[in-house]
Amino acid sequence: MDEIESIKSELKASAGLKLRLMDTHAALIQKAADIVYTAVTKGSKLFLFGNGGSAADAQHLAAEFINRFKIERQPLPAIALSTDTSVITSIGNDYSFDDIFSKQLTALGNSGDIAMGITTSGSSPNVLNAFKAARDKGLFTIGLLGKDGGKARSMVDLAIIIDHPDTPRIQEAHITIGHIICSIIDQRIKNLNL
After folding, report:
1. How confident is the model at residue 193 (pLDDT cuts 50, 70, 90)?
2. Given CA atoms 81, 85, 87, 93 in this order, what sign does their dihedral have?
3. Using CA atoms, how far apart are residues 128 and 143, in angstroms rounded to an integer?
4. Rounded distance, CA 128 to CA 92, Å?
5. Backbone φ and ψ of 192, nearest 5°
6. In this structure, what DSSP letter does residue 151 have?
7. Residue 40 confidence class, pLDDT cut points 50, 70, 90
8. How far is CA 160 from CA 103, 163, 168, in A?
9. What is the Cα–Cα distance from 180 to 28, expressed in whole angstroms?
């Protein structure tokens, strides 16, 4: 296969997965948007976390909430737990990398807040520990998960599972879902201000 055909094949695979999600995941995405909208517009916080590309997605989405997405609006409270290197490295050094998110949620999370973990495997130990800590503190938990959802699927209040074997396709779906949630929230805020 030449490079042009390879490019077309990658784009087709990405688009095909998203088209399937349109039929299977729209209601789940709307439910997640409902929960996040209610929380962040009432002053509760959205905590986002994940590893690697999922950490980048968590940071990306936190920025969309705090700064803006498509409309001018008040900043919305969102925190990516993968950004404070002093906290992460001290927890990793003194305890374990498996505790880097759970300790932050224990310290910062309150009932009414949302914990949104992103994991393409559904089985990242630090994400699983964070879900447990979040549940213990009374946070609502949302998992953007991959593959079959892994262990996380039974640990969260709302699981959005991208059942696909290819990590890049899962990551593309996760960021698209995050953007859709942002778009729904922006639209609701815009409608309130009309």
Report:
1. confident
2. positive
3. 10
4. 16
5. -70, -30
6. G
7. very high
8. 24, 9, 16
9. 11
Q: Can you tell me whether residue 169 is helix, strand or coil?
A: helix
Task: For CA atoms 16, 49, 145, 139, give the dihedral sign.
Answer: negative
Q: How far apart are CA 147 and CA 127, in angstroms?
A: 15
Nearest to 136 by CA among 104, 99, 111: 111
Backbone angles phi, psi at 139, to 5 degrees: -80, 150
Residues in the chain: 194
181, 29, 58, 40: which is closest to 118 by C-alpha? Answer: 58
Nearest to 98 by CA among 129, 69, 71: 129
Tokens representing residue 151 in the block: 């262990």
Nearest C-alpha neighbor of 188 from the set 70, 78, 79, 77: 70
Give the chain's domains with CATH numbers.
Answer: 26-193 (3.40.50.10490)
pLDDT digits (tens, 9 = 90+) for 88-104: 999 999 999 999 999 99
pLDDT digits (tens, 9 = 90+) for 108-148: 999 999 999 999 999 999 999 999 999 999 999 999 999 99
Which position has the token pair 């409270």? Answer: 77
Q: Which residue type sits at 76?
A: L
